[in-house]
């Protein structure tokens, strides 16, 4: 806006400076109404038609004559009397005329560009209200930074979690905080917002009403940039029709609306695009529609936005639940959680798949496994130990089964008599984890499956056990030969699992 105003002629610099100072409010919490008045009264139109033309004529009159011998430039400001008439300069030569015509065309294009900018600015402010005072201004606005400082203790119980919004809170006034995920204005006196918190969303209605919500408040909410953090206070209602665009089947009739942290108007990643599945993109292409695909490098460059998608939120929450279920089960089975070193003097499992580094002149490695320290713990009379921690492998492969860094779930226990004791623990451990995921993470599993489709996990409450001989025989029956007492490769493992699944289905049908 400042550059646009500075392009006005010198003859109006006084008024221009006044407008430029008024425009500071465009970037703050409210806008002074001087600009709106100037736009409304046709000030810009007068500048474009009259005073701008006068300025161009004066500039042409100041252009130097080209038939004089060139003189070194001294950057001296010269009066108009020292220059000849522009018409005489235009008649000096055809080359000069051609050059001047090119300059004239460039100036014309620049003038057109500036006119379009000014028209765009005028249209953007045409709908601004000219009412200087809003009696309900205290019910909305940007919260100043000074008010966000920890000056007085706050009770977090004042805020209701979006997840907790339900029919039981009907007709109650609640205060929520979240991100403005979607904003949809409907006319000048109504706007819908979807507020998101921790993956849960709720629809909010801002509608102009006497003594509670002003049209300026509706305009403020409608102009808010998406992904801004807001505080919304309102009354919980239950709409007649189901809400498709939110997880919570209630609606908040907004009474107060404050912006805590305003996001930039244009984000580098659109969350709707980042949450789109490949299947959806391919179907659109087949139908002749081209949808935006967010590539891996873009996701990593703007990871803070990418992790906000429902699928990524679900992945992290599932991971958290898995480690928690793992830990709780083993603690209930008298295991002790340990924390082993990750920076060690040598490789923990041998081989070349190890990250080596120099630590103050001495060779060191990143731990490939806590195996050595787990065995030391058993020999140290702990009996049963486990660990949840990072594992580092300098793998050369690029399959989904090979990772250079992952979170390992490690278990070690003493055996009283038979290795079946370990199998019993592992059996109950996995069934407990799977049951817990199905019971507590259905929403997260659905969110992941929406973007990355997968088949629901099938398992038995009592895991099927096969002896080595039985498994080898099942593979031989379908024509797969395995070396005697040899390990099963990846293909053989998959085939054996498929055979077990098919046999189990036949047993259930029988």
Automatic annotation (TrEMBL):
Keyword presence, Aminoacyl-tRNA synthetase: yes
Domain Aminoacyl-transfer RNA synthetases class-II family profile as annotated: residue spans: 316-483
UniProt keyword list: Aminoacyl-tRNA synthetase, ATP-binding, Cytoplasm, Ligase, Nucleotide-binding, Protein biosynthesis
InterPro entries (alphabetical): Aa-tRNA-synt_II (IPR004364), aa-tRNA-synth_II (IPR006195), aa-tRNA-synth_II/BPL/LPL (IPR045864), Asp-tRNA_synthase_2 (IPR004523), Asp/Asn-tRNA-synth_IIb (IPR002312), NA-bd_OB-fold (IPR012340)
GO biological process terms on file: translation
Main location: cytoplasm
Region feature (Disordered): 55-110
Localization per record: Cytoplasm
Family recorded in the similarity comment: Belongs to the class-II aminoacyl-tRNA synthetase family. Type 2 subfamily.
Name of this chain's protein: aspartate--tRNA ligase
Organism encoding this protein: Flemingia macrophylla
């Amino acid at each position: 806006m400042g550059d646009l105003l500075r392009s006005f002629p010198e003859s109006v610099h006084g008024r221009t400076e006044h407008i430029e100072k008024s425009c500071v409010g465009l970037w703050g919490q409210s806008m002074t109404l001087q600009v709106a008045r100037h736009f409304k009264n046709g000030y810009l139109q007068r500048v474009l038609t009259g005073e701008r033309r006068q300025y161009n004529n004066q500039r042409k009159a100041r252009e130097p004559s080209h038939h004089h011998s060139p003189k070194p430039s001294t950057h001296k400001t010269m009066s108009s009397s020292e220059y000849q008439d522009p018409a005489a300069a235009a008649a000096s030569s055809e080359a000069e005329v051609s050059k001047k015509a090119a300059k004239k065309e460039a100036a014309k294009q620049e003038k057109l560009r500036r006119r379009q900018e000014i028209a765009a600015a005028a249209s953007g402010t045409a709908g601004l209200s000219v009412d200087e005072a809003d009696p309900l201004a205290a019910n909305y606005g940007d919260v100043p930074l000074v008010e966000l400082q920890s000056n007085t203790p706050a009770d977090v119980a004042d805020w209701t979690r979006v997840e907790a919004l339900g029919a039981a809170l009907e007709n109650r006034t609640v205060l929520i905080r979240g991100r403005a995920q979607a904003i949809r204005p409907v006319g000048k006196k109504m706007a819908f917002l979807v507020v998101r918190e921790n993956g849960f969303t709720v629809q909010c209605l801002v509608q102009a009403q006497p003594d509670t919500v002003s049209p300026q408040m509706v305009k403020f909410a409608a102009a808010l940039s998406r992904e801004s953090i807001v505080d919304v206070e309102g009354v919980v209602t239950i709409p007649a029709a189901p809400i498709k665009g939110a997880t919570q089947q209630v609606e908040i009739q907004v009474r107060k609306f404050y912006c805590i942290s305003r996001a930039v108007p244009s984000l580098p990643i659109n969350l709707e695009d980042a949450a789109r599945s490949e299947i959806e993109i391919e179907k659109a292409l087949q139908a002749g529609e081209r949808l935006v695909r967010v590539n891996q490098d873009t996701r990593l460059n703007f990871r803070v936005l990418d992790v906000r998608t429902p699928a990524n939120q679900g992945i992290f929450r599932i991971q958290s639940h898995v480690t928690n279920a793992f830990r709780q089960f083993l603690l209930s089975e008298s295991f002790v959680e340990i924390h082993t070193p990750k920076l060690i003097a040598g490789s923990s499992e041998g081989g070349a798949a190890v990250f080596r580094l120099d630590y103050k002149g001495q060779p060191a490695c990143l731990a490939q496994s806590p195996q050595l320290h787990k065995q030391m713990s058993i020999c140290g009379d702990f009996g049963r130990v486990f660990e949840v921690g990072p594992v580092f492998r300098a793998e050369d492969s690029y399959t989904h089964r090979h990772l250079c860094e992952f979170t390992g779930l490690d278990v070690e226990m003493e055996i009283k008599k038979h290795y079946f004791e370990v199998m019993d623990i592992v059996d109950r451990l996995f069934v407990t984890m799977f049951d817990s995921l199905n019971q507590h993470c259905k929403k997260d599993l659905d969110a992941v499956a929406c973007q990355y489709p997968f088949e629901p996990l099938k398992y038995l409450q009592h895991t099927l056990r096969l002896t080595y001989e039985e498994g080898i025989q099942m593979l031989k029956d379908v024509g797969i030969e395995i070396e005697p007492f040899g390990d099963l490769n990846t293909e053989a493992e998959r085939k054996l699992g498929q055979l077990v699944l098919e046999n189990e289905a036949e047993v259930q049908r029988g």
